[in-house]
Amino acid sequence: MSENRMTAIDLFSGAGGLHIGFEKAGFEIKLCIDNDNLVERAHKRNFPTIPMINQDIRTVTIDEIRKYLPNGTVDVVIGGPPCQGFSTIGKRVSSNPEKRAEHDPRNELVIVYANIIKALQPKFIVMENVKGILTMNKGAYLETVLSVLQDAGYTADYKLVNMADYGVPQIRERVIILGNRLGLPVTFPQPDHSDNVEDNLPPWNNCWDVLKDLVELEDTPEFNHVALKHTQKNIERYKLIPEGGRLPEDALPPELYRRNFGNTYKRLDRKRPALTMVPGNDAFPIHPELNRSLTVREAARIQTFPDNIIFEGNRRQQGHQVGNAVPPMFSEKLGLFIKSLLEKEGED
To answer: Cβ of 206: how many Cβ atoms within 10 Å?
Structure first.
């Protein structure tokens, strides 16, 4: 490996969506940290040359992290702290979701992330999170995160990003926080796709281009491609869902009636990006042509994972790994953008 190659570490690495993209952008990934045995198993299979610490990040010391870093330093710290406590999709157990989220221990991990950054002092930081962070505690939580980064010497800001604007065949809104300690203004990579013809950009990519070659593929467990065995009642419901539409609740025969429709009763449109891939109880939407939900591999394709990345565990666990990830296509473009800023700064 070149001694001049830029370095990064990935906190809360999960299935690797962030660091896959940064590695493609030219970064050397020095370390991944997560706290999940299945993630560790998948990591060893998919990324055998990248060290991983499988441990609660709140108990990982800075000295432990520095053992993996040349000269104890790193150019970029990336990570997506899990914050389902304030996800706009996740189930909430309190009638006051913001209050519940404020005290959810998972949300402390965002602050832990910020404190690690304060200790390591990377040149750039990247934090990805769910849209719900914008409104948690009426915006005060996000302001707290930004103030912690600013106190650590970083200029930091955030942007709500739709991954479809960067070529991902999926409508997926996530908050991206970027920061640097180089005194640079915080900027974000410009979208390279659009749903608005007046933007003079290529149109959003559709989901069909990444799904169509899997239509005839039989169940292949080792490829994470296994169709769910739906009940006959659900199959009859799926037959009533038009392409790009949802289950017609008001037009169902009594024997098929049900309430509380989510993405599991929405069918993808071949001409459009997919709906957001979310983790849950097999909560992927319905295939554009077939009367079944997407397989894990199909969801991974929509998330832009390479086919050689294999997910471990049962279907639900695999789905969580896929649905929680940052699409590698977006993270590669983000990595290239940050790399260009670092290279330009090195020339000055």
So the answer is: 18
What percent of the residues of the chain are helix, what percent strand, and what percent coil, each to the nearest 5?
40, 15, 45
The candidate with the shortest Cα–Cα distance to 6, out of 91, 99, 69, is 69
Cα separation, 312 vs 15, in Å, equals 10
- Marked catalytic residue, from 83, 164, 275, 326: 83
Q: Note the pTM of the prediction, 2 decimals.
A: 0.91
Q: How far apart are the first and last CA of the chain?
A: 25
Annotated active-site residue 83? The verdict is yes
- Packing angle, helices 17-24 and 328-347, rounded to 10: 50
Domains and CATH numbers, the chain: 7-193+326-343 (3.40.50.150), 208-323 (3.90.120.10)
Alpha-helical regions (H) of the chain: 17-24, 37-46, 62-66, 97-102, 108-120, 140-151, 208-211, 232-239, 296-302, 315-323, 328-347
Q: What are 97-136's pLDDT values in tens digits?
A: 334 344 555 557 877 888 899 899 999 999 999 998 899 8
Phi-psi domain of 202 (left: phi exceeds 0; alpha: psi -120 through 50; beta: other): beta
Unique residue bearing structure tokens 């441990």: 55
Report strand pairing: 155-162 vs 173-180: antiparallel
| Closest CA relative to residue 65, chosen from 8, 128, 22 | 8
pLDDT digits (tens, 9 = 90+) for 2-15: 457 899 999 999 99
Task: List the beta strands (DSSP E) in the chain.
Answer: 7-11, 28-34, 52-54, 76-79, 124-130, 155-162, 173-180
**In whole angstroms, what is the distance from residue 302 CA to residue 274 CA?**
7
